[in-house]
Amino acid sequence: MTDDARLHSLPLFVRLAGRPVILVGTGEAADAKRRLLERAGAEIVGEAATAALAIVAVEEPAQAQAVIARLKARGVLVNAVDRPDDCDFTLPAIIDRNPVIVAIGTGGASAGLAAAVRQRLETLLPQTLGPLATALFRWRAAIRLAFPSLEARRRALGAAFAQGGALDPLAAGPDAVEPWLQSPTAQRDQLVHIRLVSDDPDDLTLAQARALALADRIYAAASAPSAVLDRARADAVRILCAGPPVTREPGLSVWLEKL
Length: 259
Fold this sequence. Notes:
Elements: E1 20-25, H1 28-39, E2 43-45, E3 53-57, H2 61-73, E4 77-80, E5 93-97, E6 100-104, H3 111-124, H4 129-138, H5 140-146, H6 150-161, H7 177-182, E7 190-196, H8 206-214, E8 217-220, H9 226-229, E9 237-240, E10 252-258
Parallel strand pairs: 1-2, 1-3, 3-4, 7-10, 8-9, 8-10
Antiparallel strand pairs: 5-6
């Protein structure tokens, strides 16, 4: 795997309610981090306390480095404001559609860029997105009953969440779940043939990108570009082969071919 194909960091959502988080520093930056930690329900403590995470918002370089060194020596993971090279983790720009949370990070490269992307996405994601997620959680037992196997459930939900689908996240509200369950769209086994015009995933058509994102399995040669394969689900089965499958597999399969 090339360096370009590697994630610079692994995004995680950490439950902090009632848990201690060290915050060191004063001023506007420290106040902003304090408000964020309070929203997450964290118990904000000082440097001497025991905690797994710490945020250092100290402006003076030498003082900041000393605090960072002491914390890291104790095995504490550190976020250092405006010091990306010293960060074990970064704090993303956040879009809150409780319980849906969208996080945008740049690995510390540009907080302003992350904020700009967040502002664009804020206009796209409706307030109904959170209630839709809550309704899906409330109906989860009925969904499992209607689609007992994981594969069938994934395919049914994938079709429902598609643009214009019964549960389109950008259009459907919480009241859409029950009618969809009463008459879910029947899913058919399908093989999608994608002919790649380049190794650049941005050259994929919208339909091709959607097929990759929903595919249960990917058939491709060993030379298939990793950047394109990364657009598929992480749990989609990868099958190395010289040609498309002869038999039709259940669900959605994709055959990648380079022109």
